[in-house]
Amino acid sequence: MAKKEKSKQEKPVRINSYLNEIYRKEIVPAMMKEFSYKNQMEVPKLSKIVVNMGIGEGSRNKDLFRIHQEELKDIAGQKPVITHSKKAIANFKLRKGMPVGIKVTLRNGNMENFFYKLINIVLPKVRDFRGLNPNSFDGRGNYAFGLSEQVIFPEIRPENVKRIQGMDIVVATTAKTNEEARKLLELMGMPFKRG
Hints:
Helices cover about 35% and strands about 15% of the residues. The chain is α+β, with helices and mostly antiparallel strands and about 200 residues long. The chain has a domain at about 45-175: Ribosomal protein L5 (50s Ribosomal Protein L5, Chain: A), CATH 3.30.1440. The chain is globular.
């Protein structure tokens, strides 16, 4: 009897995050009204967030990779992977297969936590911030933008930073058009430039 109880362990209950709550109660009804969806399942949602740091000097300095890998791990809450060059480029002293950057792909809870932190803590700390460019959609519902330094994240202690490093952030959604994706991100709190 004891064996049966062990094998039939309870699955951990997923606690709905603040973002999930807002999505279900406010965003879904607003999107259904605006785009005339017939079913709630048609409403687009976030699918993943990719954070990418291109470290050009890293191919010649292995310590840089280690330092920025730790920083990105702290920022994203997940271990990043090293990306390698796909071809050789003589002008950049780059051979095929050399490490050129690090990236992390966030999904589910990690993605929601990162998005919430980005909107509410990080972007308001950007100096002279007037909103994100509303034209940076790719036509398939994905939005990309860059941050010029890693020190604006609360996990990074400025006194420990050896080198300022920027990053690209891609917010992927299930939206089919730019218009749907922009509306979704706006409703989720993404601060776009007006006008």
